[in-house]
């Protein structure tokens, strides 16, 4: 028994572990609420900044698209045959007229379209003459196989650009 009494004595000498002492002057729920509010505010500011940066761009206007396409094809004027160039420039101008004025240029022949313009036209007289001159030249190159040159291609490009910009009639064509 001496061993048993000794173990009881030793057990009495050791005390239970005391719980931790809270030295904080701020209650834990206040820290939690402040952290939550801070993170929410940080998330909101980040979301607003990202939203402002990603504002949708307004749709590009048909005029801007056509001018950009004409500028791109002007760099290829020396490399493309006048026949293919006239087709591509004509397609750009027809697409522009279709999208800008909701006219069925892409589904009509040049003659049909020009006849329809005589009845009701959203274009001025100069623009109508410019468009008619342009389409007739393209048809001459495309269908009559006129032996066009690079100068003719430049003239077509200039007329198409003037039409899209709303300019005057081009006067040169060989």
What does this structure look like?
The protein is mainly alpha-helical and 174 residues long. It has two domains: 30 residues; 104 residues, no CATH class. The protein has seven helices and no strands. The protein is rod-shaped, with a radius of gyration of 40 Å. The protein starts with a helix and ends in a 9-residue tail after the last helix. 17% of the residues are buried.
Strand content: under 5%
In sequence order, what are the helices and strands, one letter per element?
HHHHHHH
* Counted beta strands: 0
Biggest sheet descriptor: none
Number of helices: 7
The best one-word shape is: rod-shaped
Summarize the structure.
The chain is mostly helical and about 170 residues long.
């Amino acid at each position: 028994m001496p061993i048993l009494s000794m173990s009881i004595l030793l057990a009495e000498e050791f005390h239970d572990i005391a719980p931790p002492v809270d030295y904080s002057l701020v209650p834990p729920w206040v820290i939690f609420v402040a952290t939550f509010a801070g993170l929410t505010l940080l998330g909101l500011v980040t979301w607003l900044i990202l939203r402002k940066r990603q504002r949708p761009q307004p749709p590009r206007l048909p005029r801007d698209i056509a001018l950009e396409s004409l500028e791109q094809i002007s760099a290829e004027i020396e490399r493309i045959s006048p026949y293919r160039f006239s087709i591509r420039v004509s397609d750009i101008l027809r697409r522009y007229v279709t999208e800008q004025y909701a006219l069925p240029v892409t589904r009509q022949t040049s003659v049909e379209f020009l006849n329809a313009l005589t009845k009701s036209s959203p274009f001025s007289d100069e623009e109508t003459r410019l468009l008619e001159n342009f389409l007739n030249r393209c048809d001459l190159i495309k269908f009559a196989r006129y032996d066009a040159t690079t100068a003719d291609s430049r003239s077509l490009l200039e007329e198409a650009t003037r039409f899209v910009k709303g300019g005057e009639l081009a006067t040169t064509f060989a």
